[in-house]
User: Fold this.
Amino acid sequence: MPGKGKHRRPKNNPLSRGFLVAGTGGAALVLPFVGATGAQAVTPAAAPAAAPTTAPAAAPVKATTTYTVAAGDTLSEIAATHSVSGGWKKLYENNRAVIGNNPSLIRPGAKLTLDARAAEPARADRTKRSATLYPNTLDGWIKESLAIMADKGIPGTYDGIHRNVMRESSGNPLAINNWDINAKNGVPSKGLLQVILPTFKAYHVAGTKFDQYDPVANIVAACNYAADRYGSIDNVNGPY
Assistant:
């Protein structure tokens, strides 16, 4: 598609694990009743203290979880996605030895430690998304994208996405434009919604693959961009 007006305002849009373990314990001592056999009840002798039958309760264990950095990740995105208490600054403080002196430079493959309170929301989110299986078709890609967009507050409808996908790529997730101005500048448009790499990087949504050709990642990033520039992908009816 022509490069005119296409993805001209990319900007960063700072916008995927653990278990709680605790031990409790204690022992209850039950004393026998003694019945009365005459005019007066017999007072029982004091029972000797019983030895504990279980070990003392263990101190609660603080849960931790780790996250493996993927290409394109930022500390702010990771902190937001996993609800890290204290945000990216706390995440950086906890992992300074792994990251180094530059919090803006995190290397793919690095394992970051998240705080205990981050583990439960992240696990719940993964469970919710894994409960629905989407078919590996254009219909499934759009529906999965819409679910993610709803979770992230990105506007758009099935019809708006489908209309633009058919115009841009005819539904081919491997489509690439090798002839327009973007291609001549070395950043060809790719994927279902023909997104250039700078736009994809700026509007990539955490939780989707960092891959321009991935159908869901491509749709969500393009819709995120369209929402920022046009209000919604539904408002796009031509080169954007």
Notes: The radius of gyration is 29 Å. Residues 215-230 form the longest helix (16 residues). The beta strands are 65-68, 111-114.
